[in-house]
């Protein structure tokens, strides 16, 4: 314990067990859910199968705003295998929603965003259900929409909801203290406006439900975080009393707020199941998850801060507008959290704010880990960084000076009872070696490295859904001596089952292994709110602890009766009860005591009940009130290095220190912080879409990559030494806090590194590059946005929204090339080899490539690969993984090996054949770019015979319709050659490159260039090959090489997309081309 | 069409409704082996990773028809006679899971790497983990689990 703790905290507030030393709490016991999760036995909702179960598909609006004129479901209803088709007419026509009911289960009259649910089908299999959805005909009258905050609040803007003037869904304001006087007294004032964006939860398990009606009651197996809250809302949406709905929580494959009972999917499953009279399973596709789940709410956040010369904060003012999307869900509570919460992080004496929630015709937003705080921190934690700069203070000193501490009360009456923020700041700074790195940066201002810090505060439960934020739990001690915890709170991966077992075991004095826990079922469990607001450890932990205390009391009373001794003289040790200081032989197992207490006349089972309510206040409309009984804190420091030539930010390391009171399960707690930090990195740097007509142009992981293992830097996690008197054994929650300040800390580090301040999320390499090199964008002409291409657009445009049709087709497997050529020449045949491109096309367009699939993967000739006499021969059906493992490849064809490294992971290389990557002749693929640099030849065949020609020629003339690629041939480079490949990924994660480049250089004995070749891909419909004649006969000179590569700038014709503007890609084509050529040259010189 | 293959060491036969049915659907729906999870459908997330003829593949992009005659291994085939595979035990020892939906994919990816290369470098491990998304852990504990698995396999004399 820290010294301050010892002196400050009243020791009597501590749990006596904590003081005596804990046995289970604080230990890395095996997770309750571990074995089912590593063996595949865990039952997620998609794994449920019931007799007679039907599969659902949903028809969604293709328009952001439209009036429904008519819906014709007759063709869908008459399809064989279709058992129910429902529209808004089949619903109770009741609006629902957590705070502001504005959402129908299926659209009535109007649709308000692309993805809005219009109709749904239940059929005997998923393919039939989707095919039926495509046959529902809806006539729309398209209405003007509002797609941004500015459009939503413009005078005369289209109204998303006719009954909501100005599109204002919610608004509130407050002034606490003397804000004007505070600013007047300030020596330094900073202000700025920051924008945040939608971020999707992207749980790898999508939202789903299996619903089944029996005896006029519906059972719903849901992957919800909040079974009871879901039950209440679903009952409203279904138009039945709550007790007619039973929600059973399945294993939850990731929640993060996205599965907290705001989705229409579960309600639609229940509506379909009622109509069909059979169980119905509805599982979102990944695309639907992007179109119609409730992502993080974007905000425009203006903030002004005033400080004294010494750095004391004197005043704060906020004006904020938030993009609600088409329906409200929990957004008005998020608005509140994002406005007031931060005021309890530092010692703000005066604060004023006004916040407005605006409807738009975009996907509705909702709860996501952090609940508004990441957007607030994105703005305010950067404003503090600006203030430190202006005050000429180290930001660490400034934050320490103003950090709240025990006993502080915020302007909104938030009471800090355990606040170790300062400790978090100090530890985070130490872990990243803040001081020494700061000093070296002061000495070397030209360094591209920089440090940034951000802090955050979070609640532990929040009084939101009425004047109760409690939990109710039962602990039973069974006749075999084991205990069962009965709680409706639930596991969503955060470790709740494990942590609650630890708390009960500690309180009961039983071994952890002897305590079981049930999974939530609203028919069985006492009322509880579930996993939200970082509340389970703190609120449910207290309820379980009280229930365990009650059960323990009953057990000891029974023992007292049986031992004929007063309770005080008895003790329980490791599942055995006996007299204190008694001999081992005097002890008897708990099981014997319990059994004897039940099996007697008027016997009683041992059942303890615990009810605990968060000691918090229900905030008023202006958000005044202590919303939570305890607050947790975090400080995070980030070190970055910025590549000035590309703008790419490399995260070097991150330290994340959290004050969550007592740490109950250290490795689970670390995991929470590591995962939260990683999601914060994603929010800041990788997770964003291109938008068109109110929807992401390609709602899949292609355009929206999550941070992957290679991208995540070293994360140092530590916990403050802290004890929360109102928490179970001193514990607080920690699920969300690790994310909140990460984007701001990264932005602060970038500002420190290269002086570029980012105000709008996401942080992209392009924004930084533009700020560093405005001259490279001087002649930029922005072309009008091209209509998007991609799965969802293709399907919507062709009237096949669901993207699947049943069809019959054939698969043929020829054994020889001649056989294959004959089959191919017959037409309507698609070559599959890895099979991947066909499956992808099917997934994304809904159509098979052809009536007949021809598997060429069993033709022996096409599987030949080898090196002979300096010639590399690769059969078309050889997969990339086989090629990369070929001995000798890397020594003599380095550029090809590097291209294969870049192509993807083992798994992707395993499924991608050489023929598959070359034959489509796509200039952005890695392999053809490398092969072109090597002047590779391609062997092709038609019924007329075979020919060998250069790949460059093939790119010019293309393949004939019946022409098959048989093999690739590549000569080894001469002596004194070097080659290199570079795939440029501006987001730093595996995806389609913004540019890729391959280079080969051959030098003479004097180091002069004999031959140089550069190929730049992904920036034009075919690879760009500049004339490098000016380099012939020259020695290495970086400036000359860079000048020669300038030709690429005009040759490139890149398209703007989510990976960058056309001008950025043009600049990168030159930069990456030059770097690759230089590297190849340097290798040749070795 | 009828396909025959070896599934977790046992013979398996499936009548495919269509030759372009995907292996993930055949495993989950036709054979009720739901340990393999569906994540994205485009091979990007790695959640559905299984081992086909010794190599990891995305079962969401693998045409089941092309597995005729192959050896398919899924997460259900790892534990033998109730004893966990060392890789599974390693994930437990390191608390390398939260929601768990990606874990079968990570476990299969790890098994396939360590069977091929019992002594991977740190970079090999990171590249292997990089192929499978995890939304919960930030990968730190999963990388720890790989190292633990290497040690457990050595101890068990399996490497």
Description:
The complex is a heterodimer of chains A (1086) and B (159). Chain A is an alpha+beta fold and 1086 residues long. Chain A folds into five domains: 176 residues, Aldehyde oxidase/xanthine dehydrogenase, a/b hammerhead (Aldehyde Oxidoreductase, domain 3, Alpha-Beta Complex), CATH 3.90.1170; 351 residues, Aldehyde Oxidoreductase, domain 4 (2-Layer Sandwich), CATH 3.30.365.10; 144 residues, Aldehyde Oxidoreductase, domain 4 (2-Layer Sandwich), CATH 3.30.365; 166 residues, 2-Layer Sandwich (Uridine Diphospho-n-acetylenolpyruvylglucosamine Reductase, domain 3), CATH 3.30.465.10; 114 residues, 2-Layer Sandwich (Enolase-like, domain 1), CATH 3.30.390. Chain A is built from 35 helices and 39 strands. In chain A, the strands form ten sheets. Chain A has a seven-stranded mixed beta sheet. In chain A, strands 7-15-14-13-8 form a five-stranded mixed beta sheet. A five-stranded antiparallel beta sheet of chain A has the order 32-33-36-34-35. In chain A, helix 11 runs parallel beside helix 12. The longest helix of chain A is centred in the middle third of the chain and has 28 residues. The two termini of chain A are 58 Å apart. The N terminus of chain A is likely disordered. By secondary structure, chain B is an alpha+beta fold. Chain B folds into two domains: 76 residues, Ubiquitin-like (UB roll) (Roll), CATH 3.10.20; 70 residues, DNA polymerase, domain 1, CATH 1.10.150.120. Chain B has a five-stranded mixed beta sheet with strand order 2-1-5-3-4, sandwiched between helices. The longest helix of chain B is centred in the C-terminal third of the chain and has 16 residues. Chain B starts with a strand and ends with a helix. The mean pLDDT of chain B is 95. Chains A and B meet through helix 3, helix 19, helix 25 and helix 29 of A and strand 4, helix 2, helix 3, helix 4 and helix 5 of B.
């Amino acid at each position: 314990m820290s010294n301050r703790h010892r002196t400050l905290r009243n020791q009597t507030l501590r749990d006596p067990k904590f003081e005596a030393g804990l046995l289970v709490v604080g230990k890395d016991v095996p997770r309750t859910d571990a074995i089912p999760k590593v063996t595949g036995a865990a039952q997620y909702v998609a794994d449920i199968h019931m007799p007679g179960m039907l599969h659902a598909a949903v028809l969604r609006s293709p328009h952001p705003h439209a009036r429904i004129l008519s819906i014709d479901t007759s063709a869908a209803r008459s399809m064989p295998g279709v058992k129910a088709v429902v529209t808004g007419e089949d619903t109770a026509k009741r609006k629902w929603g957590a705070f502001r009911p504005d959402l129908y289960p299926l659209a009535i009259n109007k649709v308000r965003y692309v993805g809005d649910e219009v109709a749904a089908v239940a059929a005997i299999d998923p393919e039939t259900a989707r095919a039926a959805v495509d046959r529902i005909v809806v006539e729309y009258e398209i209405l003007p929409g509002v797609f941004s905050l500015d459009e939503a609040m413009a005078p005369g803007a289209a109204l998303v909801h006719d009954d909501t003037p100005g599109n204002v869904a919610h608004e509130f304001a407050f002034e606490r203290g003397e804000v004007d006087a505070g600013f007047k007294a300030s020596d330094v004032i900073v202000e700025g406006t920051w924008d945040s964006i939608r971020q999707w939860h992207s749980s790898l398990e999508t939202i789903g439900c299996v619903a089944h009606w029996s005896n006029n009651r519906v059972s719903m197996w849901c992957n919800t975080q909040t079974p009871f809250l879901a039950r209440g809302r679903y009952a409203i949406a279904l138009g039945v009393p709550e007790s007619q709905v039973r929600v059973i929580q399945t294993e939850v494959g990731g929640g993060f707020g996205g599965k907290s009972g705001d989705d229409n999917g579960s309600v639609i499953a229940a509506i379909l199941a009622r109509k069909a009279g059979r169980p119905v399973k509805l599982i979102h596709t990944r695309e639907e998850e992007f179109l119609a789940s409730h992502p993080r709410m974007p905000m425009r956040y203006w903030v002004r801060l005033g400080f004294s010369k010494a750095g004391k904060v004197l005043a704060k003012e906020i004006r904020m507008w938030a993009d609600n999307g088409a329906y409200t869900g929990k957004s008005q509570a998020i608005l509140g959290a994002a406005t007031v919460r931060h005021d309890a992080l530092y010692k703000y004496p005066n604060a004023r704010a006004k916040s407005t929630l605006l409807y738009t015709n975009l996907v509705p937003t909702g709860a996501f880990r952090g609940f508004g705080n990441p957007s607030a921190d994105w703005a305010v934690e950067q404003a503090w960084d600006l203030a430190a700069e202006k005050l000429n203070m180290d930001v660490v000193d400034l934050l320490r000076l103003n950090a709240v501490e025990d006993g502080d009360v915020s302007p909104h009456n938030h009471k800090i009872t355990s606040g170790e923020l300062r400790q978090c700041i100090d530890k985070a700074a130490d872990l990243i070696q803040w001081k020494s790195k700061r000093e070296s940066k002061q000495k070397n201002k030209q360094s591209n490295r920089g440090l940034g810090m951000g802090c955050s505060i979070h609640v532990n439960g929040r009084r939101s859904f009425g004047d109760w934020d409690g939990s109710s739990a039962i602990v039973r001690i069974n006749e075999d001596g084991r205990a069962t915890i009965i709680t409706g709170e639930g596991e969503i991966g955060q470790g709740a089952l494990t942590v609650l077992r630890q708390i009960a075991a500690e309180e009961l004095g039983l071994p952890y292994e002897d305590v079981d826990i049930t999974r939530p079922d609203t028919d069985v469990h006492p009322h509880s709110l579930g996993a939200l607001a970082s509340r389970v450890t703190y609120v449910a932990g207290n309820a379980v602890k009280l229930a365990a205390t009650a059960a323990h009391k009953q057990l000891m009373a029974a023992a007292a009766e049986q031992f004929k001794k007063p309770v005080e003289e008895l003790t329980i040790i490791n599942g055995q009860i006996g007299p204190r200081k008694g001999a081992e032989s005097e002890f008897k197992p708990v099981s014997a005591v319990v059994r004897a207490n039940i099996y007697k006349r008027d016997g009683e089972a041992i059942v303890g009940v615990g009810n605990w309510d968060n000691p918090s206040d229900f905030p008023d409309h202006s958000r005044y009130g202590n919303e939570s009984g305890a607050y947790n804190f975090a400080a995070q420091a980030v070190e970055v290095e910025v590549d000035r030539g590309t703008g790419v930010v490399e995260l070097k390391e991150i330290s994340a220190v959290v004050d969550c009171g007592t740490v109950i399960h250290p490795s689970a707690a670390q995991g929470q912080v590591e995962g939260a930090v990683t999601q914060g990195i994603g929010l800041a740097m990788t997770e964003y879409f291109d938008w068109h007509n109110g929807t992401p142009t390609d709602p899949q992981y292609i355009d929206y990559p999550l941070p992957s293992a290679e991208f995540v830097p070293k994360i140092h996690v530590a916990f403050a030494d802290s004890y929360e008197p109102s928490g179970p054994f001193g514990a607080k929650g920690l699920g969300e806090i690790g994310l909140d300040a990460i984007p701001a800390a990264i932005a602060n580090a970038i500002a420190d590194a290269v002086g570029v301040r980012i105000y709008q999320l996401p942080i992209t390499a392009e924004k930084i590059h533009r700020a560093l090199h405005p001259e490279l964008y001087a002649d930029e002409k922005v072309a009008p946005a091209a209509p998007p291409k991609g799965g969802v657009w293709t399907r919507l445009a062709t009237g096949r929204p669901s993207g699947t049709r049943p069809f019959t087709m054939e698969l043929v497997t020829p054994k020889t090339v001649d056989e294959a050529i004959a089959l191919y020449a017959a037409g309507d045949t698609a070559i599959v080899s890895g099979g991947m491109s066909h499956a992808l096309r099917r997934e994304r367009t809904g159509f098979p490539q052809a009536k007949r699939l021809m598997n060429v993967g069993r033709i022996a000739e096409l599987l030949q690969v080898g090196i002979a006499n300096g010639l590399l021969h690769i059969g078309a059906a050889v997969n990339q993984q086989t090629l990369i493992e070929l001995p000798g490849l890397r020594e003599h064809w380095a550029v090809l090996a590097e291209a294969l490294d870049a192509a993807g992971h083992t798994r992707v290389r395993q499924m991608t054949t050489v023929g598959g990557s070359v034959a489509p002749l796509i200039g952005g693929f890695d392999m053809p770019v490398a092969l072109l640099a090597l002047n590779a030849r391609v062997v092709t065949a038609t019924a007329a015979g075979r020919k060998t020609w250069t790949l460059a020629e093939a790119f010019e003339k293309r393949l004939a319709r019946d022409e098959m690629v048989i093999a690739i041939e590549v000569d080894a480079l001469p002596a004194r050659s070097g080659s290199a490949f570079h795939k440029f990924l501006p987001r730093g994660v595996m995806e389609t490159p913004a540019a890729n480049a391959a280079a080969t250089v051959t030098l003479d004995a004097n180091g002069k260039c004999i031959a140089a070749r550069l190929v730049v891909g992904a920036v034009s419909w075919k690879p760009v090959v500049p004339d490098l004649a000016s380099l012939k006969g020259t020695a290495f000179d970086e400036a000359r090489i860079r000048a020669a590569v300038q030709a690429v700038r005009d040759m490139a014709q890149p398209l703007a997309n989510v990976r960058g503007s056309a001008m950025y890609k043009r600049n990168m084509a030159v930069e990456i081309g030059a770097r690759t050529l230089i590297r190849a040259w340097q290798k040749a010189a070795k | 069409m009828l396909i025959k293959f070896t599934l977790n060491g046992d013979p398996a036969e499936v009548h495919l409704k269509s030759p372009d049915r995907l292996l993930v659907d055949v495993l989950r729906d036709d054979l009720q082996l739901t340990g393999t999870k569906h994540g994205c459908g485009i091979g990007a997330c790695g959640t559905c990773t299984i081992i086909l003829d010794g190599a990891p593949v995305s079962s969401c992009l693998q045409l089941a028809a092309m597995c005729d005659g192959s050896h398919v291994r899924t997460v259900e085939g790892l534990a033998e006679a109730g004893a966990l595979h060392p890789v599974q035990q390693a994930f437990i020892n390191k608390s390398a899971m939260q929601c768990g939906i990606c874990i079968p994919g990570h476990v299969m990816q790890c098994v396939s790497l360590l069977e091929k290369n019992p002594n991977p470098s740190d970079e090999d491990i990171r590249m292997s983990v990089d192929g499978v998304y995890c939304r919960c852990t930030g990968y730190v504990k999963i990388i720890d689990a790989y190292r633990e698995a290497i040690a457990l396999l050595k101890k068990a004399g399996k490497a």
